[in-house]
């Protein structure tokens, strides 16, 4: 389809892990196989995931985040100075359903020391299985400085949150630049942390630091031809459940002023609010409408998607809109959303079909 940086048929990055990959990771944890054997399973799974995306005619390919335990661990695995504990957290579902899920809580307990690239080897392998445009996802530094800080622990190693924020932004900016040098077309930063500030909630100083940190990571990064940096903002995504609800109204003006080229926004149901905040998107920035649910196997219709895209054009010119699922299919590898790989494929194919019907073939 599209052969431009507009990438009309987009997706957020993570895909459902095949059982063989989940089992291989369990076997590594049990000491039954080594990392090299896991890598072989990962490679096979990524090759299959690339074929799935190609068959679905999506515009931009990822590795499904198959080398990561969850959306944060690309960063965690690349650094010393980060620890993890297991907690339980209440998540929300349809019809008032609540469920406690086991969650991994990461925190910085030392000076960060980088052991390797955050995305070490990911692009090199992808290039052996496809020549199509590539997207690589990173955790946003604004999320890290907010969620990985622990009073009484992190402040034993960093004088202030601002000091840590500057370091995290610098690390992220360097990784983005390295990915562009590798030929990646599109780098997406994920920050579900903004959901804490919807509806005017949350600490104003924390929001300010998150915004400043995410701005610093992308500010001044040179975009080679047809290269983009995107920011994905969701409300939590695990086992088809979520953490937050509410529209973007309270944060829209400052969020959309960040130096990103694309904003990937959840808009799959009423918990996401309306399109009115999109009136604050500056001219020339792309809005990727997350209209297709990655949480449910129920398939939207082409007519429903086109009607909602038409509704959004009241706020953003259609030339600066694109389409995607509202979030990844498995932000956490072992708590992927409750749908099948066949359902996942149909969702991606619908995104492609709707994009083609709306924007046609762009040369």
Q: What is this structure, in a nutshell?
A:
This protein has helices at 19-29, 35-55, 73-76, 122-129, 141-147, 161-181, 204-218, 252-255, 302-312, 341-359; strands at 79-92, 98-114, 135-139, 186-190, 228-233, 262-266, 286-292, 321-325.
Task: Map the helices and strands.
Layout: H1 19-29, H2 35-55, H3 73-76, E1 79-92, E2 98-114, H4 122-129, E3 135-139, H5 141-147, H6 161-181, E4 186-190, H7 204-218, E5 228-233, H8 252-255, E6 262-266, E7 286-292, H9 302-312, E8 321-325, H10 341-359
Parallel strand pairs: 3-4, 4-5, 5-6, 6-7, 7-8
Antiparallel strand pairs: 1-2
Helix pairs in contact: 1-2, 5-6, 5-7, 6-7
Describe this structure in words.
With 363 residues, this protein is of the alpha/beta class. It has one domain (19-81, 112-359): TIM Barrel. It has helices spanning 19-29, 35-55, 73-76, 122-129, 141-147, 161-181, 204-218, 252-255, 302-312, 341-359; strands at residues 79-92, 98-114, 135-139, 186-190, 228-233, 262-266, 286-292, 321-325. Helix 1 (19-29) packs antiparallel against helix 2, helix 5 (141-147) runs antiparallel to helix 6 and helix 6 (161-181) packs parallel to helix 7 (204-218). The radius of gyration is 19 Å and the shape is globular. The chain starts with 18 loop residues before the first helix and ends with a helix.
């Amino acid at each position: 389809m599209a052969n431009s940086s507009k990438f009309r048929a987009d997706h957020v990055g993570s895909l459902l892990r095949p059982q063989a990959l989940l089992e291989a990771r369990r076997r590594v944890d049990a000491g039954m196989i080594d990392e090299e054997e896991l890598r072989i399973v990962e490679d096979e799974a990524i090759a299959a995931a690339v074929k799935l995306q190609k068959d679905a005619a999506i515009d931009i390919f990822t590795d499904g985040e198959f080398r990561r335990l969850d959306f944060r661990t690309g960063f965690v695995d690349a650094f010393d100075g980060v620890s993890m504990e297991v907690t339980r957290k209440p998540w929300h579902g349809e019809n008032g359903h609540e469920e406690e899920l086991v969650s991994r809580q990461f925190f910085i307990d030392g000076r960060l020391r980088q052991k390797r690239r955050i995305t070490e080897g990911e692009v090199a392998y992808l290039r052996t299985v496809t020549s199509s445009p590539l997207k690589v996802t990173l955790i946003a530094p604004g999320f890290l400085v907010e969620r990985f800080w622990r009073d009484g622990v992190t402040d034993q190693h960093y004088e202030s949150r601002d000091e840590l924020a500057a370091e995290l932004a610098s690390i992220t900016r360097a990784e983005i630049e390295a990915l562009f040098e590798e030929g990646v077309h599109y780098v997406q930063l994920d920050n579900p942390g903004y959901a804490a500030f919807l509806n005017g909630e949350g600490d104003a100083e924390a929001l300010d630091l998150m915004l400043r940190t995410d701005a610093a990571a992308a500010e001044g990064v040179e975009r080679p031809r047809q290269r983009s940096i995107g920011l994905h903002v969701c409300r939590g995504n695990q086992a088809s459940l979520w953490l937050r609800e509410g529209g973007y109204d309270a944060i829209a003006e400052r969020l959309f002023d960040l130096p990103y080229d694309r904003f990937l926004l959840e808009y799959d149901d009423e918990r996401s609010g309306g399109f009115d905040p999109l009136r604050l998107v500056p001219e020339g920035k792309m809005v990727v409408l997350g209209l297709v649910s990655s949480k449910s196997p129920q398939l939207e219709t082409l007519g429903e998607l086109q009607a909602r895209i038409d509704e959004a054009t009241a706020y953003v010119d259609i030339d600066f809109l694109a389409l995607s699922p509202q979030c990844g299919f498995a932000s956490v590898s072992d708590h992927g959303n409750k749908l099948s790989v066949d359902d996942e494929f149909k969702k991606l194919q619908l995104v492609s079909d709707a994009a083609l019907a709306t924007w046609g073939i762009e040369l």
